[in-house]
Automatic annotation (TrEMBL):
Its main location: mitochondrion. GO terms for molecular function: 4 iron, 4 sulfur cluster binding; homoaconitate hydratase activity; metal ion binding. Binds 1 [4Fe-4S] cluster per subunit. This is Homoaconitase, mitochondrial. Signal peptide: none annotated. Residues 587-709 form the Aconitase A/isopropylmalate dehydratase small subunit swivel domain. Residues 575-586 have a biased composition (Low complexity).
Length: 784
């Protein structure tokens, strides 16, 4: 057995490369760094504390008074915030990426789905909200719907909120995410969740915002807590400065389109950069970027707590003190609260571990447009302008880009044009409809006070109530077949904003306004190209060449240290590398999964193949049905995959195994994406990879899923490519998922058989699925 102190030394040694990196950044060449490392001046397997110890202590570590070495584990900003809001941690435990934690979020927001959440809450036997100060309810999605059924649901939500003393914001007050930010619920350094996929937006103000689903929200209402696995964490470094005419929307559209190979799929993102660089990104732009990290595939998008954020908060505190002096220290924003926040702001530790690092040079960026019908297609505006794409509809709506600053940018387009029109505000182009809706009433009032709102009305814009509206595909102004639309919102999935035969593009507010004015996709001409810039500079690392080289050396050293630690761990357990190996038969026996009584040991069916990556929740279950709570399972089965392939319903059969490409279930947090597939009597979904929120919904609703990239590749070899590719295909192949042995067996139409190991389905997840989902499992626990 190796002495515990030796183990501590090995752990301490694993941190040494961080010191090595710091030294590397001060040297003039990688060669000199290597030489320094070889000489031991930067890297040593003996900690500084032991180097300074007395010889007598080193001779007899077991009986010495040497303090126990407890290495400090560097944490990312994400990990530090999660640390604060995790409960039940072991003493001294430092959370890290990959850990499962019990999370007690600062706040939890629900919107139009509050009543379905309330139904879940009551169905599990709960009668009182655990902490009513934790919960916020906003009505924002279907606010244009004046049907009695929708108005009744809205009344039920308001009555429930009043009964439980929950903060409630009625329809028309604003979009929930904007309310969470402007009312101070999304506070820097906290964890705040919502049952909506764009909770990432809170990261724009240094708050770790991440989505939960309806069942999770019900759990938080009942217990104040839910489960979360800390995702892999990616660092995105900005360099340079945003040029004039380039906005936060261009930044995130470019990131989605240029890093478009699922680079940050299911990651938590931390944005960083030099102080001068970050000063060029105001808070409103940060909110836009963080909001659309959802479309980039991430689970959060966190900006630092810095001087830019502090100035924004100070301004809000000052305005609040002037307009509402009666609130005093009860106001959401006060200078005293901001002082406390800034006294010891959370920052990532030097040497914190990131799963990947990417960079974007802002100085090389120009205006970009996403689409059509995908955020993964990003095109420089100048290229689309040359195509003279005739426009039918334009939208300045959503929580992404309809704040007062966005409305001001759009109004400036028409004001500039008025200078060439004898001072008269010009109208939008003939045949174009331009819809506007502020992110909240407060933002609309600010735009009205400045005159910007009236400018857009004078130009012919059609105002809509503050809410989600066209962004979610609800209410007035949806895209008709064959139409082209451009929006400042966050999603342009096929069919989301109307017809599946329409084309939707995303752009900044000024580009949307200029397009409405000119009748085609166009910009206002504000962009000033920096001298010498010919292309967007992006890459892996942090954008500083010498540091990136040093980091690659550090990665190699980390690998060596990890191998050394593994050897030590094996020795402590009385093992050697040889003794840890086993024969194939014993290995297979060791990997057997316990199967709970009544749970099937295997699931079989014919493969139905939907040959596409990034099939989103709008494709699986159309948004127009999402907030109709009385839809029957039969209707859900009928519309399942409707926006992806209208013929899916007639091709798929009960008992089929649905196989799809990569990143299946990306997009919104709607649970119906999982329950519609179950309604279609499809028991198992297999994909190359899943969107995290869909995986969570699947478990919570008893839909089983397995990732088998090899199967997707093999199906594409057989059926994909060129004219052979069809949206939905019956393959004649049979798949069997052997749950006990954690493998799938595939029998192709030719009779060829092959198998592939897959992830284990542990008993605790089996139990949730066997019970019919998390809601019924929680109820059973309460009853027990």
């Amino acid at each position: 057995m190796i002495h515990p102190v030796r183990r501590a030394l090995a752990v301490a040694a694993s941190r040494a490369p961080r010191q090595f990196l710091a030294a590397a950044s001060r040297t003039t060449s990688v060669r000199s760094v290597r030489a320094a490392a070889a000489s031991g001046s930067y890297y040593s397997t003996t900690s500084r504390r032991l180097q300074d110890a007395f010889p007598s202590q080193l001779e007899n570590l077991a009986s010495s008074t040497l303090p126990k070495v407890v290495p400090q584990v560097p944490q990312t900003l994400t990990e530090k915030i999660v640390q604060r809001y995790s409960v039940g941690l072991a003493p001294g435990k430092k959370v890290k990426s990959g850990d499962y934690v019990t999370l007690q979020p600062h706040h939890c927001m629900t919107h139009d789905n509050s009543w379905p959440v309330a139904m879940k809450f009551m169905s599990i036997g709960a009668s009182k909200i655990h902490d009513n100060r934790q919960v916020v309810m906003t009505l924002d999605h279907d606010v244009q719907n004046k049907s009695e059924a929708n108005l009744k649901k809205y009344r039920q939500i308001e009555e429930f909120a009043n009964t439980h003393g929950v903060d409630f914001y009625p329809a028309g007050r604003g979009i929930g995410h904007q309310i969470m930010v402007e009312e101070g619920y999304a506070w820097p350094g906290t964890v705040t969740v919502a049952s909506d996929s764009h909770s990432n937006m809170y990261g724009g103000v240094g708050c770790l915002g991440t989505p939960m689903v309806r069942t999770d929200a019900a759990s938080i209402w009942a217990t104040g807590k839910t489960w979360w696995q800390i995702p892999p964490i990616a660092k995105v470094t900005f360099t340079g400065l945003l040029p004039p005419g380039v906005t936060g929307k261009d930044v995130i559209v470019a990131l989605c389109g240029l890093f478009n190979n699922d680079d940050v799929l299911n990651h938590a993102i931390e944005f960083t950069g030099a102080e001068e660089t970050m000063r060029s990104i105001p808070v409103d732009d940060r909110l836009t970027i963080a909001n659309m990290t959802t479309e980039w595939g991430a689970l959060s998008g966190l900006f630092p707590i810095d001087a830019v954020l502090a100035s924004w908060m100070r301004a809000k505190a000052t305005v609040t003190a002037m307009e509402h002096p009666e609130l005093g220290d009860k106001a959401k924003f006060t200078h005293a609260k901001i002082d406390a926040l800034l006294e010891n702001p959370l920052v990532a530790d030097p040497g914190a571990t990131y799963a990947k690092q990417l960079y974007l040079n802002l100085s090389t960026l120009s205006p970009f447009v996403a689409g059509p019908n995908s955020v993964k297609i990003a095109t420089p505006l100048k290229d689309l302008e040359a195509q003279n794409l005739k426009l039918d509809k334009a939208y300045l709506v959503s929580c992404t880009n309809s704040r007062a600053s966005d409305i001001a940018a759009a109004a400036r387009v028409f004001k500039d044009a008025a200078a060439d029109n004898n001072g008269v505000i010009p109208k939008v182009a003939p045949g174009v409809k331009f819809y506007i809706a502020a992110a909240s009433l407060l933002e609309q009032k600010q735009a009205e006070d400045s005159g910007d709102w009236q400018v857009l009305l004078d130009a012919g814009a059609e105002p809509l109530p503050s809410g989600c509206g066209p962004c979610i595909g609800l209410g007035t102004g949806l895209l008709e077949p064959g139409e082209i639309g451009i929006s400042a919102s966050n999603r342009n999935f096929k069919g989301r904003m109307g017809s599946t035969d329409a084309k939707a593009y995303l752009a900044s507010p000024e580009v949307v306004a200029a397009s409405a004015l000119k009748g085609k996709i166009a910009g206002p001409g504000w962009y000033q190209k920096p001298e010498g810039v010919e292309k967007v500079i992006i890459g892996e690392g942090n954008g500083v060449v010498e540091q990136d080289k040093a980091m690659s050396i550090e990665d190699a050293l980390d690998k060596i240290i990890a191998e050394a630690e593994s050897l030590i761990a094996n020795a402590e357990a009385g093992l050697t590398p040889e003794s840890t190996s086993s024969s194939p038969s014993s290995s297979e026996e060791e990997s057997l999964t316990e199967i709970l009584p009544g749970f099937p040991e295997a699931i079989s069916g014919e493969i139905i193949f939907c040959d596409a990556d990034n099939i989103n929740t709008d494709g699986i279950y159309p948004g127009k049905y999402t907030y109709q709570d009385n839809i029957t399972p039969a209707k859900m089965a009928e519309v399942c995959m409707e926006n992806y392939d209208a013929s899916f319903g007639s091709i798929a059969r009960a008992g089929d195994i649905l196989v799809t490409g990569f990143n299946f279930g990306c997009g919104s947090s709607r649970e119906q994406a999982a329950t519609a597939i179950l309604a279609k009597q499809i028991p198992l979904v297999v994909s190359g990879s899943f969107g995290n929120i869909f995986s969570r919904n699947s478990i919570n609703n008893a839909l089983m899923g397995v990732e088998v990239p090899k199967l997707v590749q093999r199906l594409r070899e057989e059926f994909g490519g060129g004219e052979k590719t069809v949206a939905t295909r019956r393959t004649g192949w049979k798949l069997t998922w052997d749950v006990r042995r954690s493998k799938v067996v595939v029998e192709e139409a030719s009779g060829k058989k092959w198998e592939q190991k897959v992830g284990e389905l542990p008993p605790n997840v089996q139990e949730i699925i066997a019970r019919g989902g998390l809601e019924k499992w929680v109820k059973s626990q309460i009853e027990a």
